[in-house]
Design a protein that fits this description.
The chain is of the alpha/beta class and 272 residues long. It contains nine helices and nine strands. The strands form two sheets. Strands 3-2-1-4-5-6 form a six-stranded mixed sheet. The protein has a three-stranded antiparallel sheet with strand order 7-8-9, with helices on both faces.
Length: 272
């Protein structure tokens, strides 16, 4: 075929409320022009007010899903979200080592907004050893970076910068450290992230947007990067473009009226 369709895969959990996880990933893929496919690692009973239940998918069936999509679809870029169990992480890592997609974006979801750690220590260690070294890019927020490095959560941009080299040392080719939580706590007027491409450090800023509707922000950003990589963007092109997209998705979030809690960002702000 001469007209190749850009295909992106998300490996993550399902959010029944539609704001995060697989559902947010597929919306971001579609909004940015990539065909999305999925491997579901867990089912959640979830809405804008919280998570009421989790049902983990057996690793053997996760492997079957991976084999199914990779054997048929020309997947160029993969996004990996929360993987709660060590054997699930190992299954995904082994499959990705076998199929070798061009790009692997790892969003190491392991800390709730409340600051509670969602993964057991054994799962965190398996993530460090098995999956992070295979990643083209990891996209931790400040709490997740602190867990990965077993250090305090940074309180200012200088402390964020100090984390970059240790994060790179975990083995990924690049790091995007997200500073949104810092802006929220400091009431700053900018949302500041730091991106290290393996050779140099880049500071990325966007206006801080006051809204209570930020559910799925991290999922959406990592998926936006993945979609653009699938379309042929370089990493250095995809990351700032994805940051612009998520900033607009947050800025338009209040146009939606979804649920009674923290609503989702507006993935289709420029389409609806």
């Amino acid at each position: 075929m001469t007209n190749e369709t850009p295909i992106a895969l998300t490996i993550a959990g399902s959010d029944s409320g539609g704001g995060a996880g697989i559902q947010a990933d597929l919306k971001a893929f579609s909004a940015l022009g990539a065909y999305g496919c999925s491997v579901i690692t867990a089912l959640t009973a979830q809405n804008t007010q919280g998570v009421q239940g989790i049902f983990d998918v057996e690793p053997t069936f996760i492997r079957q899903q991976l084999d199914s999509v990779f054997s048929d679809l020309a997947i160029k870029a993969v996004k990996v979200g929360m993987l709660s169990q060590p054997d699930v992480i190992t299954t995904v890592a082994d499959s990705l080592a076998h199929y070798r997609p061009a790009y692997l974006v790892l969003d190491p979801v392991m800390v709730a907004t409340s600051g509670d750690v969602l993964l057991h220590q054994s799962a965190i260690e398996t993530l460090r050893q098995s999956l992070i070294p295979k990643a083209s890019l990891i996209t931790p927020n400040l709490h997740e970076a602190a867990v990965l490095l077993d250090c305090p959560v940074p309180r200012n941009p200088d402390q964020m910068i100090d984390m970059i080299e240790p994060l790179l040392a975990l083995g990924s080719r690049a790091v995007l450290l997200k500073g949104g939580h810092l802006s929220a706590s400091n009431s700053d007027d900018k949302a500041t992230d730091f991106y290290h491409d393996g050779s140099s450090l880049h500071r990325l800023e966007s206006d801080w947007i006051q809204t209570g509707n930020t559910h799925g922000t991290g999922c959406t950003l990592s998926s936006a990067i993945t979609a653009l990589l699938a379309r042929g963007y370089s990493m250095s092109e995809a990351i700032p473009e994805a940051k612009k997209y998520i900033a607009q998705a947050i800025a338009h979030a209040d146009q939606l009226n979804i649920g009674q809690g923290s609503g989702p960002v507006h993935h289709f702000y420029n389409i609806w």
